[in-house]
Every structure is written in structure tokens, then in C-alpha cells.
Amino acid sequence: MEPGNANNVLLSCLEKNVTKQASATATPPLSSSLADPRGLAQGLEEAFLAVRNETERRAAPLSPEDQQIQSMPDASPTKWHRAHTTWFWEQFLLGEHCPGYRPFHPDFAFLFNSYYVSAGPRHSRNHRGDITRPSADQVGAYRAYVDAAVVKFFREVGADKLREVAPLVEVGLNHEQQHQELMFTDILHAFAQNPIPPAYDPDWRFPASTRTGEDWLTLNEGIHTVGHVDDSFHFDNEKPAHRALVGPVRVSRNLVTNAEWLAFMRDGGYRTATLWLMDGFATVNNEGWDAPGHWRDIDGQWQMMTLAGLKPVDPDAPVCHVSYYEADAFARWAGKHLPTEMEWEVAARAGQLNDAFGIVWQWTRSSYSPYPGYRAIEGALGEYNGKFMINQLVLRGSSLATPEGHSRITYRNFFYPHHRWQFTGLRLADYE
Ligand SMILES: [Fe+2]
């Protein structure tokens, strides 16, 4: 993560509300400035506690057994997410900047470091579900211990140190928000493996689509600035901002729906090799895919696993849990294309995309590559984004699981092309 300019780093991302969100408590905007250390300390504390509380709010409906499961190597247990986000504060804030801080437990750095080679050895990602101890309660105690230490640090540290760590705190908050989204996607995947499909929240509802108006937005040929421009919060992969040639292209204002996807399925989409990339068709066959992820054919009716349990597929809702391979095949079947991330960004900046945020991340056909001149920051946090810039595709927007205040037009999410347990869908592009 790029710490950015400290003068403008006051969690300004949290002031941006370009998303339509389905859940989560808003993180309070910081009302202070770096020139006002007491105000800054209070603002950091409020933002910190709001994010930490949101993690616990998301975990609260889940039993210790629910929190233990790792249903596949890509998904992590809820308990691990709660502990790992806590380790992040311990490792990068308290351990580095709070003299005399004593870690909660000497083994937890090994257990809950994710992929930071620079931060030391770590437990295998594929076996996070094997860690039955510490218990969920002990992880709760770990969180409380670190929360208290961080709040004490904010209240007692000097003004200069506070200004120095403010960008790091902002990274920690955004990091934890990313894991909040994963908590939903990972537990949904786990529940989807259960023959008696549990509900995370029986009252949860899939967010309503705002599909309206013209179907296509036309972008004439033009040179546009893309990427994050100012010093408000951003991940390092959103910079440097640069100029890009975009268009002519038409970008669909609307997300692809389940009804459209069902037409693709009825037309033999999953069985027609000519629609698929070679790796995609191999994945379809190896995995036995004949529908989006979490769909079940029950007595001839398609149902899908949601946070409210198994629900009939709503034909008008945006399709969800499709991989890049599937999105690409659907676009080919429709005689269209997936947009590039630059086309998506220019269209979103024009404010002309329905449901750009808050329902499903949208696959683009852009490889997750560094922007021209990109440099990861020095130190262990330089591992946050840059080392993943290979063999993945960019998704834009945000999803129903994205915490409020965590979305922005320049945000670059990324997953491997076979991944579909996230809340992922698509919109189309056309060049005719
Ligand atoms: Fe993490």
C-alpha cells in the first residue's frame, strides 16, 4: 500500500459514497485534520473501532463451528479472518510503532500471517481450517487485547508519531474491510456445501437492481485520465494515474441478468466448446459446471444459495457467482465482449452505469497488470498488491458484501479466471 500524502490521508475514502450498499455500518468520517493532533487521535480511534466492530457484527451470527470451517483452499475460516486482521494491527502498527508492546501470544504471528514473506514464517494457507485452537472465544480475547492497545496508543502517542502512522492506520482499516467482504463470500461457500443449506441471515435480501433507461452508453474515441489522481486513500495498484485511449465503444448500462444467463444455458452454452477459451472449457468439464456457482437444480427449478439460504433464482436479478471463463463465454454467445477496465472506468466516471457498485463485481477483460510506472512501496506492505500482478483479471465496481465506504471508481479488484465464489457478475461491451 502506498501511504500517500499525509496531509490528505484523513480517511478521505470514507467520505466517498459512490456505492449502493446492502449492509454494514458506516465508518464515521474523520472530522479532524493532521494539524489538530487530539482531533486526529479521536478520529482515528472512531474509525478504528467502527471497522473493528463491523468485523464482529458480521461474525456474530456464526457459531464457533461455523467459524472453524475452511470449505476450500481459497476460502478462509471466519475465525481466521478475525484473527488475521488483528495480527495485521499487531504486526504493522503496534509491533513497529509502539515501544514495549507485548504480543498477545507468541505463536499467533505464525498462525495468522497470511502471505507476508517479509514478516516471517507462516502457517499453510490450505490448512487454516485445521487450526481448532485458539478457539473462537480466544480469538475474541485476542481482538479485545489488540483493540485496547491500539486505542491506548492513539490516546497516548505524540503528535508527530500520530501523523506518521495515520496512513498506515488507513491501510489497516481498508485491509480489514477487504476481509469483511471475504467473511461473507467464504461462509456462503461453506454453507453452500451443506446439504441442508443454512442461512447466515434469514431476513437478508439480494439487493434490488436499478436497471432503467437506455441499454447502451456510447463512448466516442478519446484520451482519458485513468487511475487514482489525488492523494486521498487508494491502494497502490490504482496509481500512477495515466492517459489512455478509450473508444469508440458501447458499454452496457445494465448488468447481465439471471434471465439472460438462463437463455445462455438453454442454448447449450456450457456444452458448446466454440464459445469457450481452452482453459475455460477444460474447467467447465473438470468441475462439471452447468450453471453459475451456488445454483442447484431442485425438481427442475433453479435455486441459488444466498446469505438467506436457498432461494429461487430471480430472473430479473443480476447474475452472480460466475467466473471470468463463464463471463467470457457468455459475451461470445451474445455476440458481444467484456469491457476493458479502462472502458469501465471512463463509463463509470460519466455516471452512466446502473448498478456499478453494491451488487456484483464486474469482470473486465483486462489483465491485472501494473500501471505504467507502478512501484510497490518498500517493506513488508509492498507485498500487499504488486506480487499478485500475474495471471489474474481485473474486476471493477463493488459487491453486496463490500463494506460501506470501501468502494471507488478507480478500485481494482482481481481474481483468477476460474474463481467464482465471490459476488461476481458482468456487463457487456460492443464495438459495432
Ligand atoms: Fe489480509
TrEMBL record:
Specify the domain of life of the species encoding this protein: Bacteria
Q: Which UniProt keywords apply?
A: Iron, Oxidoreductase
Which residues belong to any copy of the DinB-like domain?
48-182
Identify the metabolic or biological route this protein is part of.
Amino-acid biosynthesis; ergothioneine biosynthesis
Domain annotation Sulfatase-modifying factor enzyme-like: ranges: 214-353
Pfam families attached to this UniProt entry = DinB_2 (PF12867), FGE-sulfatase (PF03781)
Task: Provide the residue span(s) of the region labelled Disordered.
Answer: 57-76
**InterPro entries in alphabetical order:** CTDL_fold, DinB-like, DinB/YfiT-like, EgtB, Sulfatase_Mod_Factor_Kinase, SUMF_dom, SUMF_sf
Can you name this protein? Ergothioneine biosynthesis protein EgtB
Q: What does UniProt list as this organism's lineage?
A: Bacteria, Pseudomonadati, Pseudomonadota, Alphaproteobacteria, Hyphomicrobiales
